[in-house]
TrEMBL record:
InterPro entries registered for this protein in UniProt: Acyl_CoA_acyltransferase, GNAT_dom, NAA40
GO cellular component: cytoplasm; nucleus
GO MF, any single term: histone H4 acetyltransferase activity
EC class name: transferase
Stretches the record annotates as Disordered: 23-53
Keyword Membrane among record annotations: no
N-acetyltransferase domain ranges (all copies): 111-260
Bias type Basic and acidic residues, positions: 29-53
Gene3D superfamilies attached to this UniProt entry: 3.40.630.30
Location in the cell: Cytoplasm; Nucleus
Pfam families hit by this protein: Acetyltransf_1
Protein name according to UniProt: N-alpha-acetyltransferase 40
Keyword Phosphoprotein: no
Amino acid sequence: MTAAQAAEEKVSALSKEFAQKATVTGRKLTKEEQKAAKKAAKKQERAKLAEESRRISSTLSAARFAEDGTTPRDHLENFAAFAKFDRNGLQLTLKAFARGAEGGVPPEVLKACFDMTEANMKASYEESGWGWNALKKQRELESEEARLLVAFDTDDVPRAFLHFRFEREEDQLVLYVYEVQVDQATCARKGVGRHIMLLAELIARRAGMDWVCLTVLNCNEAAAKFYERLGYKMDETSPQVSQMEGEEDASYTILSKRCGAKPATASA
Ligand SMILES: CC(C)(COP(=O)(O)OP(=O)(O)OC[C@H]1O[C@@H](n2cnc3c(N)ncnc32)[C@H](O)[C@@H]1OP(=O)(O)O)[C@@H](O)C(=O)NCCC(=O)NCCS
C-alpha cells in the first residue's frame, strides 16, 4: 500500500468513526475530533502530492535513461521502421545520439548540426533582436540533457536533425524540441521535417510525456506555418497569453501539442 493510499484509508476510517459517533449520540464533532480530521486530511493531501512528484520523477528518469538509470536511452530502439526516410528522391537513415550513450556524440556530427543551425537560423536570430550567439548554440547541442536524432544521407552526411530534451514543467512532463533543422539546399519541403517531428511525438508518447513543446521566432513565418500544419497551438505559457498589459510584444511564441496516451509499460 502506498503512503497516499494509507493516508486516504486513515481519513476514511476517521470520518466513518466520527460520523458514527455523531449519528449515535446526535452530537456535533468535538474540537479535538475536528482537528484530528483536518490533520488527517492534510496528511493525505501531502502524501498524494509526494506520490505524484515521485511518479513524475521516475517517468522523467525512465524517459531519459535506460534501465541502469544512467545511460541515455536509445530513442530509436522501438521505432526501427521510422529510422528510414525513403521518399521524394531522398534516402535518409536516422540515428540517435546523446552524451553518455554508447559512442557519445561524434564531434563531426555536432559540427554538422551546428553548421546547419547557423546556416538556417543566424539571420532569423539577428532579425528577432535576440542576436546570434554561436557559443550558446554549441553549448546547447553539447549539453548532457540533449538528445539528438540525426538523418544521414547515403554518403553519411547529416541532412537534418532534431534536438530534444525531456523536461518537467511544474506537474507536466514535456518533450521540448530545442531544434529542428533540415538542410535547405538538398532536403527542404520533402517531408523530412514532418517525419522527424512525428517521430519525436511518438517518442514523447511512449515515454509518458504530457506535451511536446517548442519555441518559434515570430519572424520565422515558414516554421510557424510548418508547426501549424502539424497541429501545434499557442501554449498557455507563451508570452502572448501570459503577457501583462503594457509589456512589449515578445519576439517568440511557445507552441505545444498534447500527447495522445500514456506509455504501454511503466519502464517504456
Ligand atoms: C521548417 C522546416 C523544419 C520544415 O521542414 P521541411 O522538411 O522543409 O518541411 P516538410 O516538407 O516536412 O513540410 C511539412 C508541411 O509543413 C508546411 N511547410 C513546410 N515548410 C514550409 C514553408 N517554407 N512555407 C510554408 N509552409 C511550409 C507545409 O504545409 C508542408 O506540407 P506540404 O509540403 O505538403 O505543403 C525546415 O524547412 C527547416 O529546417 N527550416 C529552417 C530551420 C527552421 O526554421 N527550423 C525551425 C526552427 S523553430
